[in-house]
Amino acid sequence: MDKISIKNLEIYAYHGVLPEEKRDGQKFIVSADMYTSTRKAALEDNLEKTVNYALVCEQIKECLLKQSYNLIETVAEKVAETILLNNELVNEVCVCISKPGAPIPMTFETVEVSITRAWHKVYLSIGSNMGDKKGYLDYAVKALKEDVLIKNVLVSQYIETKPYGNVAQDDFLNACIELDTLYSPQEMLEKAQLLEQGANRERKVHWGPRTLDVDILLYDQDIIRTKDLLVPHIEMHKREFVLKPMLEIAPYAVHPVFNKTVKELSDLLM
Question: Do 150 and 225 share a domain, yes or no?
Fold first, then answer.
């Protein structure tokens, strides 16, 4: 991955907790390292195939001036988000916001916050076996496509499957979704839960009927084991209703625990 950097861009803006900071303003210094591929642009000598750093500087300036924030942590988040959302070729960005005029009654050089943000590849499983099954899946897909922090949404065909577990219930309609997102794993979990709530999901019976089920299957190649979130999904390798639609859209996605592709896992299940 190549890197294009903007170093020490000076912008006079109005951020801070104190009233005088918001009223009088002060100098902020912004640096950004943008990770991309410059190969095609370099070979063709074509500005359209690379990141226009002059345009990015204007985007950063507009971001710092359009709204006043209390924290430079917030400023850093907004700058990173602005760069990633407005520059398709940037996959990852490291942003540093420096505040040399911070109101500290001591001698110091500067105060700064540095963050790294990136697009993440995520795979979801969605399913429904109550009411308008297709309508609930369509609702989830539409909501994901309309989210500004999600892009490149790819959806498998909807397939009908038998219910998993020992609870008597109707057949399911299932699908898998590939997407890129700026959400963290925990934020992606919260997004999934909001989708379920929007479909009036009620959790009364384990593996019981549901209007909408949204599970995170893979998040990059991360292995996450927390109280609320298990990624890769703990049973995805056992479930045909997960592997079959995922085989359609991502046969070579790799399970980071078993180090096998979706196709290999599917072959083992047959």
Answer: yes
Active site residues: 99
CA dihedral of residues 104, 107, 110, 112 (deg, nearest 10): -50
Helix (H) or strand (E) holding 33: strand 26-36
Instruction: Give the CATH number, domain containing residue 53.
Output: 3.30.1130.10
Written in H, E and C, the secondary structure of 99-165 is CCCCCCCCCCCCCEEEEEEECEEEEEEEEECCCCHHHHHHHHHHHHHHCCCEEEEEECCCEEECCCC
Written as six digits, the tokens of 177 are 């979704």
Question: For residue range 151-165, what is the model confidence (pLDDT) as tens digits?
Answer: 999 999 999 988 765
Domain that holds residue 38: 2-118
Choose among 251, 174, 194, 189: nearest CA to 222: 189
List the Cα angle 219/223/226 in 5-degree steps: 100
pTM of the model: 0.92
Residue of 43, 51, 59, 192 whose CA lies nearest to 125: 192
